[in-house]
From TrEMBL:
UniProt subunit comment: Heterotrimer of A, B and C subunits.
Amidase domain span: 2-443
Transmembrane helix keyword on record: no
Gene that produces this protein: gatA
Protein name as annotated: Glutamyl-tRNA(Gln) amidotransferase subunit A
Catalytic reactions of this protein: L-glutamyl-tRNA(Gln) + L-glutamine + ATP + H2O = L-glutaminyl-tRNA(Gln) + L-glutamate + ADP + phosphate + H(+)
One Pfam entry name: Amidase
Family: Belongs to the amidase family. GatA subfamily.
Keywords: ATP-binding, Ligase, Nucleotide-binding, Protein biosynthesis
EC number: 6.3.5.7
Molecular-function GO terms, alphabetical: glutaminyl-tRNA synthase (glutamine-hydrolyzing) activity
Protein source organism: Mycovorax composti
UniProt-listed SUPFAM superfamilies: Amidase signature (AS) enzymes (SSF75304)
Length: 451
């Protein structure tokens, strides 16, 4: 589709609230410029992409869907954005999300909720809800989100599209507004696997501005995607597929798929997994701790929102006014939780314990990946919730991250694949595959075969 067609679609689907800002004139001008250019065409020549409002794009506003960054304009571009532009992509706008990427429904946004295009009485998922719906509703060809504990895979699952969270350290986080730095990774939303492969190959790889990016060479995923049938070894956790929180139809669909793979010649085997009940608590302890520290920079002094009533005589009150009015409830809850688990009296009981869980889990996954190519799991325990359904019950909202946080706790890549339709709710859902670190290529190849 052309820029004009996407702009018309964005206008027609405005009520979904996926975009918080559309760069209509800029996108038109860039399309013209690309058309007129005689330079060799980039890999993404004219490809229309949207980016989540946590990714910096020089000269454009970026707010992490928070009042505290109201009016802030990015002074540099994220490495991922630079690389998209260098290959000829057209960035069409900034996409809605949960405030500082904290949430699972996109209801914690200063811009309001995003509607799921498959059923507008349901949420998009989150935190990258705008990024998911923009691709779902055909408002751009692909989009970038961020995934700290499932924020790309879960909304992709809820919207019936592909969501890829690469290995931690595959894509530079330079210019990505931090939530929990040792978990955060930029991820990709697309309609199909070749698009995801192409975007990944463009944005991945070493970056002098982020020392946590691996120096491993980046495969030409889009060219090396293999269509031919290879037999893979796939592990699954019976505990995950029989979990009490899982919608039985989702469990049954995945079990059927596993059987189908087995009859196709893949090796499919159960692996005992006894850490399931520990991973969500460990995730929320560690991420809130990192978030409390990362978000301490938003004090109203350097950038963003400043409360109109100021008491110049007392710096503490000045900070308190700015932060009290600037942050939303979910972010405040997490800052408090994070400071609590890091406080001297409780550090060992919470933070240290959670780190141990993270280590145990990493060791467990290493062992599994010695014997298997992939782990197959649900992406989410249910289809997209109804608007407001979980807003009053944060714990049940957190528990719903049970299947996605594992990949971020351990750093392995995960992909959500849209394969099914729920017979009762008429909503899409799929399954999730994870591979060992930096094995995105087999992950994408197998995904390509089954999608
Ligand atoms: N729902 C998870 C959370 O609220 C995941 C968020 C994310 O991946 N950014 O922390």
């Amino acid at each position: 589709a052309t820029v004009e067609e996407y702009l018309a679609a964005i206008e027609a689907k405005k009520h979904l609230n996926a975009f918080v800002e559309v760069y209509a004139d800029e996108a038109r001008a860039r399309a013209k410029e690309l058309d007129a250019s005689t330079a060799p065409k980039g890999k993404l020549h004219g490809v229309v992409i949207g980016i989540k409002d946590v990714i910096c794009h020089k000269g454009h506003k970026v707010t992490a869907a928070s009042k505290i960054l109201e009016g802030f304009t990015a002074v540099f571009s994220a490495t991922a954005v630079e690389r998209l532009l260098a290959e000829g992509a057209i960035i069409i706008g900034r996409l809605n999300c949960d405030e500082f990427a904290m949430g699972s429904t996109n209801e914690n946004s200063v811009y309001g909720k995003v509607l799921n295009a498959a059923d507008e009485t349901r949420i998009s998922g989150g935190s990258s809800g705008g990024s998911a719906v923009a691709v779902q509703a055909g408002l751009c060809m692909a989009s970038l989100g961020s995934d700290t504990g499932g924020s790309v895979r879960q909304p992709a699952d809820f919207c019936g599209i592909v969501g890829l969270k690469p290995t931690y350290g595959r894509i530079s986080r330079y210019g990505l507004i931090a939530y929990a730095s040792s978990f955060d990774q930029i991820g990709i939303f697309s309609q199909n696997i070749p698009d995801a492969a192409l975007l990944l190959e463009v944005i991945a790889g070493p970056d002098e501005y982020d020392s946590t990016v691996s120096l491993k060479p980046v495969p030409q995923y889009s060219k090396e995607l293999k269509k031919e049938q290879k037999s893979y070894k796939i592990a699954y956790f019976p505990e995950a597929l029989n979990h009490e929180s899982l919608d039985p139809e989702i469990g049954a669909a995945i079990k059927n798929k596993l059987e189908e793979w087995q009859t196709q010649g893949h090796t499919v085997a159960p692996v005992t997994f006894d850490l399931l009940d520990y991973i969500v608590p460990a995730y929320y302890i560690l991420t809130t701790a990192e978030a409390a520290s990362n978000l301490s920079r938003y004090d109203g002094v350097k950038y963003g929102y400043r409360h109109p009533v100021q008491n110049d005589a007392d710096l503490d009150i000045f900070y308190k006014n700015n932060r009290s009015a600037g942050f939303g409830w979910e972010v405040k809850r997490r800052i408090m939780l994070g400071n609590f688990v890091l406080s001297s009296g409780y550090y060992d009981a919470y933070f240290t314990q959670a780190q141990k869980v993270r280590k145990l889990l990493t060791n467990k996954l290493t062992l599994i990946f010695n014997d298997f190519d992939f782990i197959c799991m649900p992406t989410a325990p249910s289809v997209a919730f109804k608007i407001g359904e979980k807003m009053t019950d944060p714990i049940s909202m957190y528990i719903a991250d049970i299947y996605t946080v594992m990949a971020n706790l351990t750093g392995v890549p995960g992909i959500a694949l849209p394969l099914f339709q729920h017979s009762r709710y008429h909503m899409p859902f799929g399954l999730q595959l994870m591979s060992s670190h930096f094995n995105e290529l087999p992950l994408l190849s197998f995904s390509h075969n089954i999608l």
